[in-house]
Every structure is written in C-alpha cells, then in structure tokens.
C-alpha cells in the first residue's frame, strides 16, 4: 500500500491495511478515498473490537476475498427489486 493509504488507515485499522493492499488497482482507487470518511474509521474500529471479543469468526484475510477474485472494472450489478418508492 502506498504511504497515503497507511496515513489514512492509522493504527486502529491496521488489519484492513493488508487486506486492501491485496486488491487490484481499481478496488484501491475506489476504496482508499472511503477510508478518509468518519464512518469508515468507526466501522473499522467496531469490526476490530468485535474480533477482539471473539464475535466474528471469519478470518480477517477473507474480509475482501470476493474483491480479490474480481477486478472492480469487471463488476456488474443487476437489480431485481420491483417495489415502488413512496
């Protein structure tokens, strides 16, 4: 990960640092700006706390596993929702 990413993530989000580093450049381009947002920092701290409490059983290395299997540029989203917005 570049110096910018390490600066953004900080100490309490260290476990995400290695996982984001394993992603393709497209994912990094999309995800790194999100790490600057307050919600991302809060979510990352929460996730780390849940790991420490033993409430999350997924191995940390698998958090972004699906992202490593596909490049961001190849992602396609299909919406099958047929409801209405009131």
Total number of β-strand segments?
0
Note the overall shape. globular
Beta content: under 5%
Rg over C-alpha atoms, rounded to the nearest angstrom: 15 Å
* Mean pLDDT metric: 80
Reported for the largest beta sheet, the result is: none
Helical stretch tally: 5
Question: Would you tell me the structural class of the helices and strands?
Answer: mainly alpha
Q: Which parts are unreliable, with pLDDT below 50 for 5 consecutive residues or more?
A: 1-10
Helix content: 40-55%
Q: What is the chain-wise order of helices and strands?
A: HHHHH
Instruction: Give the N-terminus to C-terminus distance in angstroms.
Output: 44 Å
What does this structure look like?
By secondary structure, the protein is mostly helical. 53% of the residues lie in helices and 0% in strands. It has five helices and no strands.
């Amino acid at each position: 990960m570049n110096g910018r990413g390490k600066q953004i993530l900080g100490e309490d989000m260290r476990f995400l640092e290695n996982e984001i580093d394993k992603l393709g450049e497209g994912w990094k381009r999309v995800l790194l700006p999100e790490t600057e947002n307050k919600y991302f920092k809060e979510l990352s701290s929460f996730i780390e706390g849940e790991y420490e409490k033993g409430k999350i059983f997924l191995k940390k290395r698998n958090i972004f596993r699906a992202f490593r299997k596909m490049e961001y540029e190849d992602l396609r989203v299909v919406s099958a929702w047929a409801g209405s917005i009131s």
